[in-house]
């Protein structure tokens, strides 16, 4: 799924915002009416549509505008699901469609031409025709009906405020668009690293940083940038934009009945994605002859990525496997590529033409000017598993029907991208974990360069492996399974940029402190904000700094972080001291060791916990004596100003239009304190160097299911169900999020009627 479409750090959106701001007066945007809609307003608007629901097909809504679709046929149910999806998220879908097609310039102007060129080279829809041609008829019928529902509402609804601002004229959907959305959500999490590294691949210190990156396993950018510069490099922009297309992380935990108070399994999920508006998930319930389930779906993709049916709960995390490689093309290959010239339409300017070349190893990415300038004489192609015709929709439709963990694991054999850890728990008491991915069969990874020569790429990509070829587990002896984007197994060639073990270590410690978990206990674990590695690192830093301190105030800070437990609570003062000390030390290290350049890797948690002390110990005594007091004083000064972690560290949800000066406040939520940090179980990540006064990504939705009771399924979104600008339901779940509450999604008909009282369609 998409990591982010709207964090404040995203340079793509900042550029779009600046363009919108420059054009606002000329276009009279201040005259665009900004409406306000209540739940009753939105229900009446939906009811007023001419929707040809078949007899026995209707939708129930709760007080948060969450839909529950009922139908006597699967096709009619899929139609109704498509209808409510377009009604609630139509403008979001229209934006995503243009993004995936490389049409950002149509909305944001000439500054996006290079980005559009790159997206068209990535070619998200390349495999869609073959996938569609080979899709089972039942899956095709489901998708076709869903598309019909989308288009039925599209033909009747008015343009949204955001569509007017961006110049979007809504376009009908096709089944290939649905597959395109799926591939967009399946972007490789390694792309930001690959594209950021391009800029420095030919530099003298590249090998050092590449090997360090591999050692710490950081799934992050390693581009060098000036911390004092507000303008990111072109490579950094591309890397961060590609990062916005992919899913960075998540938690998923299943607990066996032997470790629960009820004797039945428990499951929690919380995807870690971009914190923006509208939320990248929709909450839905389905009741058709084949599907009786509740859960979360990515808008435009008619499957539940995580959820619950009467017999099974499922969820997962990004596997962080390498589903792509960059390949260095030989001159002979380059001269025999298929070539295509495309026209890129540009808003408020003339169209541009760009060349697309496709080699046997994939599109020639260095034809994009922004990348080509950085690669010298090398021409690089992208080999991506997303260009293989794998059918994730069918896999997840089968998973939604699965009655036990074993059936769920078999259903995942068809998943290609994005690679996933899929966890499940069934009512019979079983829990399990399967690696759902289709990957090249690599013997391993190169030591000094991630760019492969053609011969090696051909060898690696000659054989495909999938879920049936990877290890899986059912009912491990520990009685629980925790997946937090950590290395799931020792399979050779699976990936090299996994998250660290913070969250796994903390979850296991909390499990081991309790004999049997209740749902409330598992929820508390999901919301935990303590980092064991922060606790360890803070004590190491205190010990390192003490011999070089000059006054009592400096000693007070070191004692404070030494005694700190690593708990990033909103009211913590020590968390502030620790983070400010980290930031100060990293800046000084960049001056002493990298001539003022700032490797972005130094800002990442994996580096801080694996390499920071190593680099500090390499300093001379005179260097330590010079920088340590200065850094401690800076940390003291900044901490005294902010006082509490939550005063500095906040969540503010922005729509893409929330970055427009003056008008942007109309498209943003109020900020509120955010506990947690980069690798706490309740993740609220921030950038250490470029400012951490607002979180950039983290926990974005939550799910808890108790297999002891059909109705004990709870979900909440950071934001709201509705994606319509002006709707109160765009942000109405924020108070629930802040107070750690959730929305119940039952499976029993009587309970559904109670909690979802608003009915539209059928015999009302």
Would you report the number of β strands?
Answer: 30
User: Helical region count?
Assistant: 28
Helix content: 25-40%
Largest sheet: 10 strands, mixed
User: Low-confidence spans: pLDDT under 50, at least 5 residues?
Assistant: 1-9, 20-33, 218-230
Q: Beta fraction of the residues?
A: 15-25%
Strand order of the largest sheet: 20-16-15-9-8-7-6-2-1-30
Oligomer: single chain
Question: Can you walk through the features of this model?
Answer:
The chain is an alpha+beta fold. The strands form 7 sheets. Strands 20-16-15-9-8-7-6-2-1-30 form a 10-stranded mixed β-sheet, with helices on both faces. It is built from 28 helices and 30 strands. 56% of the residues are buried.
List keywords for this structure.
8-stranded antiparallel β-sheet, 764 residues
In a few lines, what is going on in this structure?
The protein is of the alpha+beta class and 764 residues long. Helix content is 38%, strand content 17%.
Topology of this protein?
Elements (H helix, E strand, L loop, with lengths): L10 H17 L11 H10 L9 E4 L5 E4 L3 H27 L4 H4 L4 H10 L5 H7 L2 H18 L6 H6 L8 H11 L5 H8 L7 H11 L7 E2 L8 H11 L4 E7 L10 E9 L7 E6 L4 E6 L8 E3 L3 E7 L5 E5 L2 H4 L3 E7 L7 E8 L2 E2 L5 H4 L7 E5 L7 H10 L3 H7 L8 E7 L4 E6 L2 E2 L10 E3 H7 L3 E2 L6 E3 L5 E4 L18 H11 L6 H8 L5 H14 L6 H12 L10 H21 L3 E2 L5 H6 L1 H6 L3 H22 L2 H4 L1 E2 L20 E2 L10 E2 L11 E3 L1 E6 L6 E5 L16 H5 L4 E2 L4 H7 L2 E4 L3
Parallel strand pairs: 2-6, 10-18
Antiparallel strand pairs: 1-2, 1-30, 3-22, 4-5, 4-21, 5-26, 5-27, 6-7, 7-8, 8-9, 9-15, 10-14, 11-12, 12-13, 15-16, 16-20, 17-19, 23-24, 25-26, 27-28, 28-29
Helix pairs in contact: 3-7, 6-9, 10-12, 15-16, 20-21, 21-25, 22-25
């Amino acid at each position: 799924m998409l990591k982010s479409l709207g964090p404040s750090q995203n340079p793509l959106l900042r550029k779009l915002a600046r363009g919108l701001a420059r054009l606002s007066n000329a276009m009279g945007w201040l005259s665009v009416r900004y409406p306000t809609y209540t739940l009753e307003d939105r229900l009446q608007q939906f009811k007023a549509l001419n929707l040809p629901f078949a007899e026995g097909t209707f939708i129930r809504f709760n007080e948060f505008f969450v839909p529950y679709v009922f139908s006597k046929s699967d096709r009619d149910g899929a139609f109704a699901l498509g209808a409510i999806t377009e009604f609630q998220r139509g403008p979001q879908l229209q934006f995503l469609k243009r993004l995936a097609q490389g049409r950002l310039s149509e909305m944001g102007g000439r500054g996006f031409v290079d980005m559009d060129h790159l997206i068209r080279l990535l070619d998200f829809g390349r495999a869609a025709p073959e996938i569609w041609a080979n899709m089972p008829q039942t899956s095709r019928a489901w998708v076709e009906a869903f598309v019909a529902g989308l288009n039925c509402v599209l033909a009747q609804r008015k343009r949204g405020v955001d569509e007017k601002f961006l110049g979007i004229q809504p376009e009908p959907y096709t089944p290939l668009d649905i597959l395109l959305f799926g591939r967009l959500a399946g972007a490789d999490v390694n792309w930001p690293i690959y594209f950021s590294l391009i800029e420095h691949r030919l530099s003298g210190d590249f090998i050092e940083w590449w090997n360090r990156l591999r050692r710490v396993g950081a799934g992050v950018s390693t581009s060098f940038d000036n911390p004092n510069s507000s303008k990111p490099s072109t490579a950094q922009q591309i890397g961060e934009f590609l990062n916005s297309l992919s899913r960075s992380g998540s938690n998923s935990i299943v607990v066996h009945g032997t470790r629960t108070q009820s004797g039945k399994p428990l499951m929690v999920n919380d995807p870690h994605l971009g914190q923006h508006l509208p939320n990248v998930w929709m909450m839905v319930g389905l009741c058709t002859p084949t599907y009786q389930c509740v859960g979360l779906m990515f808008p435009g993709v008619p499957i539940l990525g995580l959820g619950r049916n009467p017999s099974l709960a499922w969820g997962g995390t990004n596997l962080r496997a390498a589903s792509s490689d960059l390949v260095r093309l030989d001159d002979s290959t380059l001269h025999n590529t298929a070539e295509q010239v495309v026209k890129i339409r540009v808003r408020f300017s003339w169209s541009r033409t760009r060349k697309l070349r496709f080699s046997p190893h994939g599109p020639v990415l260095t034809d994009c000017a922004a990348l080509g300038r950085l690669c010298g004489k090398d021409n690089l192609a992208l080999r991506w598993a997303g260009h293989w015709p794998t059918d994730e929709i069918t896999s997840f439709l089968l998973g939604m029907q699965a009655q036990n963990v074993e059936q769920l694991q078999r259903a995942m054999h068809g998943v290609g991208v994005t690679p996933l850890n899929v966890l499940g728990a069934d009512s019979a008491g079983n829990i399990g974990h399967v690696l759902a991915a289709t990957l090249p069969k690599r013997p391993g990874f190169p030591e000094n360069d991630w760019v492969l020569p053609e011969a090696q790429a051909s060898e690696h990509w000659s054989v495909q492996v999938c879920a049936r070829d990877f290890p899986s587990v059912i009912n491990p002896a520990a009685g629980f399974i925790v997946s937090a984007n950590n290395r799931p197994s020792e399979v050779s060639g699976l990936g090299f940029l996994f998250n660290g073990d913070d969250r796994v270590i903390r979850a296991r410690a909390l499990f081991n402190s309790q004999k049997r978990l209740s749902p409330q206990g598992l929820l508390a674990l999901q919301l935990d904000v303590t980092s064991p590695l922060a606790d360890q690192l803070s004590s190491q830093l205190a010990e390192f700094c003490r011999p070089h301190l000059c006054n009592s105030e400096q000693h007070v800070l070191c004692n404070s972080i030494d005694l700190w437990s690593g708990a990033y609570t909103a009211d913590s003062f020590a968390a502030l001291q620790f983070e400010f000390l980290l930031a100060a030390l990293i800046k000084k290290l960049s001056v002493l060791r990298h001539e003022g350049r700032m490797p972005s890797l130094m800002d990442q948690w994996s580096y801080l916990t694996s390499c920071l002390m190593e680099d500090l110990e390499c300093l001379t005594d005179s260097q330590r004596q010079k920088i340590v007091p200065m850094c401690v004083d800076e940390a003291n000064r900044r901490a005294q100003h902010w006082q509490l972690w939550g005063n500095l560290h906040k969540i503010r949800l922005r729509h893409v239009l929330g970055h427009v000066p003056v008008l942007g406040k109309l498209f943003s939520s109020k900020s509120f304190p955010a506990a947690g940090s980069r690798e706490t179980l309740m993740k609220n990540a921030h950038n250490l160097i470029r400012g951490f006064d607002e979180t950039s990504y983290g926990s974005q939705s939550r799910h808890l299911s108790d297999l002891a009771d059909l109705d004990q399924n709870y979900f909440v979104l950071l934001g709201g169900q509705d994606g319509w600008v002006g709707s109160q339901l765009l942000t109405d779940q924020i108070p629930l999020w802040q107070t750690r509450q959730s929305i119940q999604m039952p499976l029993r008909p009587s309970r559904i009627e109670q909690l979802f009282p608003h009915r539209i369609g059928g015999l009302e």
